[in-house]
Each structure stands twice: as structure tokens, then as C-alpha cells.
Amino acid sequence: MNKQITRVTTVVLVLFGALFVNLNVIALFQADEIANHPGNRRIIIREYALERGPIVAADRAIAQSIPSDGQYAFLRVYDDGPLFAHLTGYYSIVLQRSGLESALNEQLTGRSTEVVAQNLGELLGGRDRPGNTVELTVVPAIQQAARDALDGREGAVVALDPTTGAVLASYANPTFDPNPLSAHDPAVVNDAWLPLRSDERRPLIDRATRELYPPGSTFKVVTAAAALESGLEPTSGFPDEAEFDVPQTQSNIGNITGQPCGGGDRVNLSDAFARSCNTVFARLGVELGDDALREQAERFGFNADVPYELTVARSVVPSDLDVPATAQSAIGQRDVRATAMQMALVGASVTNGGVVMRPYLVSGVRDPDGRQIERAEVRRWTELPGGGAALSPRSAEQLRTMMISAVRAGTGTAAAIDGVNVGGKTGTAQTGGDPTAWFIGFAGQDVAVAVVVADDGPDASGGGTAAPIARQVLQAALDN
Questions:
Q1: What backbone torsions phi and psi does residue 80 show, to the nearest 5 degrees?
Q2: What is the predicted pLDDT for the residue at 456?
Q3: 259-270: average pLDDT
Q4: CA angle 322, 325, 328 (to 5 degrees)
Q5: Other CB atoms within 10 Å distance of the CB of residue 28
Q6: Catalytic residue, candidates 217, 270, 276, 405
Q7: Residue 217 appears among annotated catalytic residues
Q8: 42-131+176-205 CATH, one of 1.10.10.10, 3.90.1310.10, 3.30.1330.120, 3.30.70.600
Q9: Tell me, what's the pLDDT at 6?
């Protein structure tokens, strides 16, 4: 009898042990997965019972939660949704989250590690506090100027504070309205989502950060930087020719006008830059070599992941190029690709003494009582080769002067603003189909900008299409 009791007791203990282990496995390893499964409607209802914190730009709530009738206590709404859509993203019962709604979900719900004490107080007090307020660096007036200047054309505008890296504007067109995607009715969400997914213009793609374009002649800023860092001067002379005889190929490189850039046999580096001479910069690329060109580009941030709150596509300059490819890359053609964000960083670093700052979109986070619990860290992009110094202060000042000359008396005159030292570089990338028009530049040390316009017809150009857009955005930044 004692043996049977012992056996039964052992079996019971084993079963209890197995149950204990199983419960602990669920509690420790599977609880989050089960609780957060998209199909668990109770979790969705509980999540929507929390008042998500607002996203604020210059004291204007561009995303906030408002009380709602029905099973979901709060509805997420977006003020002028299309203007900020690629930044805020959406918060949806069907699509979940995107943009800052996804990247800063913990901050917006108030469940980040910085507010553990607050969360404990909620548990003990038995109440739910609103989420935290996320404050952006974006200035709505500059963002609006970018939208107005693009005027419905496909492209993007990025404006930065060169000295801090703060993003003053980041707008891409086409865009979308996040409000119907955040509706509580799944039918409304799907009716809005399906056309967006099938739209050939891809409005869900943020062309400011996620789209790569051939930079065209704006890349001559990088090539000029490499030349200056190699010991050349703005006064260094080159043959002034209508066509550069590229070694190792029958495909030569000519100027867009089909003519020499100057009026004599020689042209200096500064004038060649202002007039965007393909022949001089293709020659420079061959003389410098592909390694020097790539290394200089990488000091600006190419071939690296941009440290930013939202995902930025990696801008690329290929390695191991042959001579013809190097000549084409030096004028921003061939396989060189860049985002508007990356080219804004290039322009910003030139007017910032050669220093590349880490771009940031979020200036800080405040709890529901207004206390600041996170603050943006302003610092240079030290992870880059050179520790965030794209070029020496001397070379940066020389290149800055060259960019100012390009706006005063070169291809960028349409970006000029009376009484302001505006510098820049135009670009017109020819890669088949309509040109891609660019302008990158700055207004003093107050603001830097990059503008890219794609598919605007066969006559699009950096000087005629992108530079006037840049002027409007720079002016709006100066006014604010």
C-alpha cells in the first residue's frame, strides 16, 4: 500500500512539476507573443483604451488621440495628414503602425524604460495615464513651403539646421492621408489602403529618405571636396574643352551645352564648378582615382546607415570602378545613388566647417505632467571615416565660397536671395527617360536644403526646376 501511495504521489508531483514548468515557459518566454498577437482583439481594445501621446511640431499637435464612441476608446487623428504623413506614419487597427507611430511607440504609450516608475504608479493606483508627448524639430511653415514649392511634382525636400543636424522640413510628394488608415472601421481602412498599394506613383514611399536617385552634378560637391583635400586650389587650372576623351572607352563625356565652359584654353576649378563643367570633373575623377572619390564620399556619409529616427536608404558610391566608370561617377552618373537626406547632409557639412552632424527629427519627449524625460543629443556623426569631419576647415571654406559663386554667377542663380549668402550646386541627372533635377545648398549657416524632382518632363533641370524650389524653402526658413 505504501509503495502504491508513493507511486501516486510521485506521479502527481511530476504532473505538478510539468504544469509549473509549462506555466513559467508561457509567462517568461511566450507571454508577449501571445498577448501581442495581431488576432487578439482584446489586446487591441486594451491598447486603444490608452490615450496615446501627441506628436507635436512647434506647439502644433500634428497627431493626437481624441475620445471615441464604441469599443475603441480613442481615435488617432492627424492635422493636415498628407503634409506630415511620411513622418508621423499611421496608427491602425488593421495595418498596425508606421513612421514615428512605430519607431516611437514606447514613448507615445508612456511605456518606455525611462518612465518605469510612472508605470509602477499606474499599476498601484489602478489607472491609466496618457502617453508622452513627442516634440519634433520640424517647423510647419517650412514644411508647408516645401509642399507649396513642389506644387504636386514628384520629388522631395529636406531642410536641416547645419550646426545641429535638426530636421526643419522633410516633405515628399506624392503623399497620402493617414486619417482613413487610422479609422476604427476596417472597411474604411481597406478602402483607403488598396488604392495606395496599387498606385504606380507609390505614395507610401518617403522619397526624402527611402528613394535613391542619381545625384547628377550635385555630386560635384563631393568631387570638388576630394580635389581640394588632395592639395588642389580653387584657382587650379584645367583644359577647357567641349568633350573629355575618357581613357579606355569610345564613349566620351561632354558638357551639357556641347561647348567649352570658358572663353579660353584653360578654366580654373572654381569657374568649372560654378558652370558645372562635366569635362573638368570627369577629368578630375580619373586623376583622383576611384578610391579617393569613394573615400571622400564616405566621409560625407555615403555607404553608411544614417543614424536617424526613421529608416534612411543607404546612399552608395561603388568600389573597384574602372576608369570610364570613375569618370562618370565623378559627375554623379553611372551607379552613384543618393537620398535627398544624404545630399542635404553634404550641403550642410560644407557650410558647417566640414563637420557632418547627425540628423535628428525628435527634439524631446515630455511626460503627461510636462516634465522632459528625453532630450535630443546634438553631436557630429563620429562613426564616419574622419570622425565626422568630411573635409578640413580650410577646404570647407574654399568649397563654401565656390558654392556661393555658383549661385551668384553660375547655374544656381534661381536660388539667390537678396542680401543672403546663398550657396549651392545644381544637378541634372540623365539616366534614360526624363531628367532628375537637383539643387543642394545653404543660406548662411542658418539652413541647408536638398531638393530633388523626378519625372517632371524632358526639359527639367537643376537650375530651372529645383533651384527655384530651394529658394522658396530657404526663404521660409529665414523668415522663421
A1: 50, 55
A2: 76
A3: 90
A4: 150
A5: 9
A6: 217
A7: yes
A8: 3.90.1310.10
A9: 59
